[in-house]
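Appendix B, example 12.
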Amino acid sequence: MGTAEPQVASGQDVKVVSGGQIVANAQPQEMTDGFQLVIDALKLNGLDTIYGLPGIPITDLTRRAQAAGMRVLSFRHEQNAGYAASIAGFLTQKPGICLTVSAPGFLNGLNALAHATVNCFPMILVSGSSEREIVDLQQGDYEEMDQLAVAKPVAKAAFRVLHAEDIGVGIARAIRAAVSGRPGGVYLDLPAKLFAQSIDAAAGKSSLIKVVDPAPRQIPAPQAVKRAVDLLKSAKKPLIILGKGAAYSQADADIRALVEKTGIPYLPMSMAKGLLPDTHEQCASAARSFVLPEADVVMLVGARLNWLLSHGKGKTWGGKGHKDWGGHKFIQVDISPQEMDSNVRIDAPVVGDIGSCVSALLTAIGSGWPKPSADWIGAITERKTKNVAKMAETLAKNPSPMNFHSALAVVRDIVKANPDAMFVNEGANALDFTRSIVDMYKPRKRIDVGTWGIMGIGMGYCVAAAVVTKQQVIAIEGDSAFGFSGMEVETICRYNLPVCAVIFNNNGVYRGTDVNPTGGSDLAPTVFVKGARYDKLIEAFGGVGVHATTPAELRKGMEEAIRSKKPTLINAVIDETAGTESGRITSLNPSAAKKK
């Protein structure tokens, strides 16, 4: 008789002992896989929300992430998910996570990745990808693309993970790159084969990294602080400019103390509005065109001398030509030393994180700081008073149909009554007029197109703002800008988010009055369907649509949206002749510049 084969229960781990005998282990080895390690690594680092769009090869990752208690918000287009992740990073100081499929999905998210890098928003774009061995030989895999190579030029950093045991390292490196120093967009490439890789669960757990102090403070040099304070003290017409870097720093109390302790007038850039209320007596926004050329010492706090500030040159700054500046002396507070002297000479660079720099400046200033001259403050006050009165007169008018000013007079009142609401803004005229008319009262409540002036951020920002802050969201959109992300109203309705989007509908880009010069049947390139009913779009998904043709109807619709907290879209019909070409950047239009 032969020897009976030992029986092993299915699924049990086995081992061979002396004499060739096979026995079952008492405790089978526990395994984990790439899917779970990605989820565990994110959760270990407090990243519990994913903005994305499911599909091959990351569909199961979204399912398992949700099952593991993460919030997974599924969008209709990856670009909008990316914008949501980028602004979530700005609001939280932690990298927003955008998850996409390979190739086309990755490319859709790439615009948002570049947007995050340019605007210094911490974000990680995580994309599935084809297998390296097939991509490198260009053998025609499903959605084959060397995504890492494509992402590198527009990302702060880019990484690829090939082995499950390296997932913890890959995510840790991505987190550090996204938030350390000057924040930015990071790309993380995860090939499909990675997710199914299995390793020992204990080994997998030990391979994960909880990132310690990912954005360490960078203390400014004492001599740099002294140089800045001495220069500021010598100024006869000082000015402080607050940028979105100041808002991102969340050093709100110290920034306010610096402004108020010195008594120096300040200008907030658009996303720094509300660091101090726009109604603050030292706010010089209403006299912007006066203070920029007249100031002798300008301190930039988290603001860059890019195109939004005319590069520190030209007539804006009192210079004679585009390459000239008006002899200003600049103090610049920034975490990046490379930013200094990028356009004009920076006389007193202060390099470090905004919080540490402002704290050091406050200490150095001490008590008894000399207030700016009465002549300087008086001249600013005079121009502010004149311009505010002129604006009030314009806002008080009630033309029919509405124009930007009469509609924004309503928005201004609504925001004042609801200062905790998040405020999203994009467009050309809709952006520019809103920036100058609607006051903000609290930090990081206004989020807009930022440095690039990019269209399409609207509905993605709305989703993230509602999810991160759990506050009412008000969005003021140009009809052109809304078109880039309008389908995401379904996403807003699906998650029942308290978003009130107001579409300023003037039938076209800038305005709806252009005509086809050939007399043909095609509309002019800048003209949309006349009388479009954007409000009907949200009704298709169960939201509330409002058609407003008067300020009273607009006010009623916004107040009801805020009261009910229901997803609402208001089609605010405004005069189609009201807009101006390119908003307030007409000078960047070659044909407009040629006419000068």
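Confidence is low (pLDDT under 50) at residues 1-12. The first helix runs from residue 34 to 44.
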